[in-house]
Specification:
The complex is a heterotrimer of chains A (95), B (481) and C (480).
Chain A (H helix, E strand, L loop, with lengths): L4 H10 L6 H18 L34 H5 L5 E2 L2 E5 L4
Antiparallel strand pairs in A: 1-2
Chain B lengths: L5 H10 L4 H14 L6 E4 L3 H13 L10 E5 L26 H8 L3 E6 L33 H8 L5 E6 L5 H7 L2 E4 L19 E6 L2 H11 L29 E5 H4 L4 H16 L3 E5 L7 H16 L18 H12 L2 H14 L5 H21 L5 E5 L15 H5 L6 H6 L3 E9 L2 E9 L4 H14 L12
Parallel strand pairs in B: 2-3, 7-8, 7-9
Antiparallel strand pairs in B: 1-3, 4-6, 5-6, 5-10, 9-11, 10-11
Helix pairs in contact in B: 2-3, 5-6, 7-16, 10-12, 10-13
Chain C lengths: L4 E12 L40 H11 L3 E2 L2 E2 L2 E4 L9 E4 L6 E2 L2 E5 L5 E13 L3 E7 L2 E5 L6 E7 L6 H17 L12 E11 L9 E6 L2 H20 L7 E6 L4 E4 L12 E2 L6 E2 L2 H9 L5 H10 L5 H8 L2 H14 L2 H19 L10 H12 L5 H12 L6 H7 L8 H14 L1 H8 L6 H11 L6 H12 L2
Parallel strand pairs in C: 13-14
Antiparallel strand pairs in C: 1-11, 1-12, 2-6, 3-17, 4-5, 4-16, 6-8, 7-8, 8-11, 9-10, 12-13, 14-15
Helix pairs in contact in C: 1-4, 2-3, 5-6, 7-8, 7-9, 9-10, 12-14, 12-15, 14-15
The chains are: A mainly alpha (95), B alpha/beta (481), C alpha+beta (480).
Amino acid sequence: MDVTEEVVRNIAELVQLKVDDADIQQLTEGMQNILALADQMQAINTEGVEPVSNPLDASQKLRPDAVTEENQRELFQSIAPATESGLYLVPRVVE
Amino acid sequence: MINRSLSQQLDDLSKGEYSSVELTQTYLDRIENHQSLNAYVSISKDVLEKARQADQLRAAGERKPLLGIPLAHKDIFCEAGVRTTAGSKMLDNFISPYDSTVVSLLRNAGALSLGKTNMDEFAMGSSNESSYFGAVKNPWQVDRVPGGSSGGSAAAVAARLCAAATGTDTGGSIRQPAAFCGITGIKPTYGRVSRWGMIAYASSLDQAGPLATTAEDCALLLSAMAGADEKDSTSSAVQVEDYSKFLSQDLKGKKIGLCVEYMEGLDPEMSRVIEEAIEVLSKLGAEFMDISLPTSPLAIPAYYIIAPAECSANLSRYDGVRFGYRCENPENLEDLYKRSRSESFGQEVKNRIMVGAFALSAGYYDAYYKKAQQIRRLIKNDFLEAFKSVDAILGPTTPGPAFKIGANADEPQAMYLQDIYTISANLAGLPAISLPAGFIEDLPAGIQLIGNYFDEATLLNLGHQFQAQTDWHKKAPELST
Amino acid sequence: MSGEWEVVIGLEIHVQLSTISKIFSGSSATFGAEPNTQASALDLALPGVLPVVNEAIYPKAIAFGLGIGANIGARSCFDRKNYFYPDLPKGYQITQMDEPIVLGGEVEITLADGTAKTIRVTRAHLEEDAGKSLHEDFHGMTGIDLNRAGTPLLEIVSEPDMRSAEEAVSYAKTIHQLVTYLSVSDGDMSQGSLRCDANVSLRKKGADAYGTRTETKNVNSFRFLEAAIKYEVVRQTEVLESGGKITQETRLYDPDKDETRPMRSKETATDYRYFPEPDLLPVIIDDAFIAKVRDSMPELPAQKRARFHTEMGLTDEDSRVLSSELGLATYFEDCVNICSDPIMAANWVKGDLLGGLNRDNIEISDSPVTAQAMAAIIVRIQDGTISGKIAKNVFNAVWEGKTDSVDDYIQSEGLVQVSGSHELEPIVDRIIANNPKQAEQFRSGKTKVLGFFVGQVMKETAGKANPKQVNDLIISKLND
């Protein structure tokens, strides 16, 4: 898989990373290095093999429907970069 | 004091040979004197006070399994009121408002938190060079890496800056640094230890475990750390054993597999280490046989898709809104996201986020992500087949001893291959232990034993018996001050 | 509008499941709390947190699936849907992509002309809600409240089977009725418990291929849904007829301006990179569990409506109205169970009761006249104790809180109707005697004057006479 500059820019957009022209080379190489390894996988036929998403193939335990959390807004917002009136602030969002 | 194992220290404390305060102060002094190793990123402010309380409790007859033992925590475990960075500038200012289950279980068992250890940024690395707080030095040779990502924990234990430490292992991050630093480390079965409060790298691979000088200490710590947690849906309900109980079991009749794929093309020095280990274990009654893990050569390719894919999503929460680093004067929302993330993530983290997002993107999902998860199934099946005939699989932990700091800077692929023997256990979710088993060029070398699901007891038993016949685990580096 | 276009509509309806706590955390899911006071470490996506699934979502989602005749997935898994938005703390939404809990199914709607139409449901899946962005000015910043983040949702996706705004509204109302009937959701649209995304496109009549669609997001009332779709239909018609092309895009409906406009946020313009949520394991839903849910389900609105019509003999219209809402239907049935007269109960419930509730803006659950009181009034009409006219007075007295007991009130106010010929006969005799002219008219065939005599008797008895008995008595006396 050859990673093009366009691919790098598109992916960077999806994961919200800023890409300066100077970074392109480094990111492209970084991706290329990993993908070159990954491409070895294509050598083996995996048709019909069920993918693993959890190594134990276990099933889910569930939680009773009860309120177990208390209001800790003050504590949580003490580590927030910008809050006001109990809200987290971000630059104006236009819908 | 410092050359006593954790188990011995517990014995000493109960006999009154020294107090928890004295023990803690000794470690604090050593940490202070060996700051150049860069093993710790922060020291607990109140640890002496906690040691004092532990001494009082002990005097009052309290008998908790780890009472008064100072431990170091990898800085990936959230601890309430304590800065928890995951080795990243992103979390340089993050004071965790809550406790991870691992930290709270060990505290409940009486252990003290001495401080937080350095690590590769978000646990992505095999050398500890990707930490925002700088590379950790291998105490055996300070121009060498300690391994990663739990490099700070391994270096701290090896340098006797603590008797034991917690770590996490996603692709070898406990075992590889343990091998490089000449100590013992176990990655338990996936789901054995709760991941609640453990900062995620790759959710389906991450697993916490202990690093210590001996298998006996690891057993003691794992007994305290393991168990089902209602806060972690992926934690297992399988009963936790008292691992210490199985340590002294006879090895007669134990069957150990030698993976032909691992033994091929092995470095001659590493080969010698393995041969010596086989001899020791054979004398103890273990039987060896060849086994095959045919898909194992594809473990690294599969890992370097699965782990980045999961991390690309896991690290999306770092957006400068609710906690962590936020860029100065963002112009708009996009600028806030992009600069907060780009200014505070290191290059390796960015590379993996990018690859992961790519592997999941439209048109590539089947060829990369799905393919990798299918290969994971084949790897798991290989192990299931092997464990029909053996109790454990022996091999090297790493291809060779610790490399020089900066040696792989221009060869990331060489760095990725560091994990060639360790990664399969993560993909399959199996427990694996690394034991110090010799030296290559005056640097420690480790052997790895992979066990069947939830059979940590066998690995610790093998490790303890091996350590009863060898003294590699007793060797400590001589530190210059 | 030109008649050559066919409108094609599909709806995605987000229904908030009525649980006590959130889908993946133990935070309260109550509406209306102070900002971020119901946002736990998990809801804030602090480093190291992990989701744990609330068990209450499964019976609700399964009940809905059974209610529309769908297949229930034997394995229910969650996936991550990746995108950045400030109201989405993790940077991904936990939802179901590959293995939704509900697959297929259909809903029958009633059109304005009374005919029925079937709308197919593609799937319904479980997911978490996002938080809220508050755009009031905080020094040019937007405020984020994450109380709603993690509220459980069932997203119900229809096939593009609707052909007009009215059909879409009828479908949405039918879904609303079903989810409230089944206690899947409280259905309170003012609190956002049911929100619609409308996919609208046009195509030439007779064409097979669908046109390019727009998606109008987050419409939270039936009225707005109708208006938003109508606006889109007009707008798209104009674009197409002027030779333009429809842009596939996400739009928002602005009720103040009654228009839709393209969303400018990047919330949707992305590759979502779905993959299985590694922090959660598959939930196995076995037949026994499905059977348990089925056994605990109430009768569905369509079944109730049919039964009211066929078994109770109500008109189609009465059956529809009385089955429209579970509370109302329950009230009606409680009433019938006591009084055993569905027709009279239907008339009273549809008439005086619904009239009163609408007038005073009261929910049926808070009705001052309980189903038991309503039935007691009807019983007293049936046994002749009071007349229908007096019954209305009794109903009003109970409504206004003048009494708790229908019978006590009838007694204490002396409302028991005069019946029995020994009491009525002398009165009838006297009135006939006093009005010989009218009596003659009756006998000569002008039977209309009967009303005059009845009125006189009622006046004399202050309305307490049994009207039927008075009628019969007067006729027999006059014909003597």
